[in-house]
Amino acid sequence: MAGRAAKRRGDDTATDVAILRCDPLPHRMNRGKELRLLDLLVGWRSCAATVARLQWRLFHDTGRFDDTADPAKSHRKDHAREHAVPRLAVLEAIVAHHGVERKSPPEEGKAEPKRIFRMLHTPPGLVDPLAGHKAAIGAAPVAMVRRQVVGMLRSFVSNRQNDFVDAVHGSTLDEPARHMLLAVNKAMAWHNLNRPVYAKRPEGRVLVPREIRLLARAIWRHVLSLHRKPSTKRIGMSVDKRIATLSPAKAASAFPLWLRIAIPHRGAIEIPLRETLHFQRREGQRCSTFNVSQDRETGTLAFGIVTDIRDACDKAKAKYAEKARTDLLALDFGLSTLFASDRGDLFGRGFIRKLKSIDATLIGMARHFQRSNPGRKLRESRRYRALVARLRGYIETEVNSALNRAVAARLPRHLVLERLDFRSPELSARMNRLVQNCGRAVVAAKLKSLEQELGITSTEVRAAYTSMTCSACGYVDKRNRRSQSQFHCLWCGLTIHADVNAARNARGRRSSPVEGAGTANGRRGILDGLVRRHVERWPGERVLRPLGRHGSARRPADPRPANPYFRGRDLARSPAWSGRTAENGTRQGRGLSSSTLKS
Ligand SMILES: [Zn+2]
User: Fold this and answer.
1) What is the whole-number distance in angstroms between the Cα of residue 402 and the centre of ligand 1?
2) How far apart (Å, rounded) are the C-alpha atoms in residues 351 and 394?
3) Which ranges in 256-350 belong to alpha helices (H)?
4) Among residues 272, 275, 188, 181, which one has the least CA distance to residue 219?
5) What's the whole-model pTM score?
6) What is the 546 CA–ligand 1 centroid distance (Å)?
7) How far is the CA of 472 from the centre of ligand 1 (A)?
8) pLDDT digits (tens, 9 = 90+) for 178-196
9) Distance from first CA to last CA of the chain, Å, rounded?
10) Buried b (16+ CB within 10 A) or exposed e, 400-426
11) Contact 48, 332 (CB under 8 A)
12) Cα 263 from chain centroid (whole Å)
């Protein structure tokens, strides 16, 4: 099936990709069944740790994860057992001779004997590194673990690939170098320099030179070092039809569904499940995959039924496409107003107030905990974890509802958002960290589901200086921002809600990206581009009368000499500098409509 193949490649741009949703169902299970499942979970997680280790090694060698790679197969193919056994004995002897005990914990301050592990376990190796796990939880579950872990690692690497792109775009490198770096990133050829990578250039197909490859490897290592690798310690079990089946109850009872999980060597467990309203309403194709997850706090197990909703989504998309009436909606993100649109709507006001009150509780809790439990981590506190869970829930509800309202009000086909920054000087450092980590993930998930379920696509633009740049004339000045909510342009006199102004800037940046963004490093480049653009557009002394309701009485002096951003710019000697003549058509009126010029 094409859809499945596309899913396996981890490619979700294809239209026929499965869209999966998991509904948790309430269950009743006796303690005996639960203990047997928990036993399986322990084996599952231990197997996942080994699989992750093997897959990372494969990734470093080949640039790919492989959910079909079974080291046992290559072992059987390449090494007849009678040869393998004596060679294993020799290796074990070498290991013993060097005094490295493979099973013992590493000595203090010493790394694990990785080379020995590799000698014994690299496929085609002498030993199947998963043999122990296969004996413990069964061969089919090991294959399921592999698929689950590979999915997790692929999504981690794909996020890091995006980080790589950001890093390259934010660099000062020239265009050909950036292009070639991105080609290496796309080919996932960061590690293996012997694998040739070609980039399409105007002059034809070009082999990426070695110095670029080395640079790509350094950037990749840096990007990886900023994130912890995904942990398998707390993963749940994604079981499929090889060991699990769902069927309707044979007799009428309070539990209409029964999930049967066959645990190798331990018999089958029947788990009664109750349906929820949400689940009953869920349209789509039931999958033969089930998620068994464990609650972090209570340790209890939960069962999720997976449904492929792509057909329902296609229908909803077609329906939405008919009624959509805005091509592009730009949203500015902030903590005081969650989302402001370029049309002047404000969604999710008062977000920061609630965050501040949670922050106050958090600060008090941290102080109390550290006084009464010196030397212990706050994370060990149950009350703290409950508060963090509540915060996550709150952010999720607020973001989802604000975006839903924005979509319902404007029915857009495409969204433009600023690169999100959830930090605020009004919150404590700990709170900032929590909100930042959780907020980005929540917004990303919501945008993804909007795209899957309604076909609304989105792009992200760089947010630097959107809050202090005028969306009408492009004048950038710190003093333009009078307060949290009020924006008043010192150049053209525009008065507008500050967040709406920023949303309009985001919209503008999508259609005409600021020249200089990306070429020089980050914010500085954007500022240079903005200032240059403004000086070119409005050469000479300011001759405009202030616009709008608020500033027509008096003509303030040119704000630029007192603006540090314009320091060093040759304002007086720009080509059109000749007093009032600038009024007569020398400026290109981008951003100012004829009606505003007349006023
Ligand atoms: Zn202005």
Assistant:
1) 29
2) 10
3) 277-281, 310-323
4) 181
5) 0.70
6) 9
7) 5
8) 999 999 999 999 988 888 9
9) 64
10) bebbeebbeebebbbbbbbebebebee
11) no
12) 35
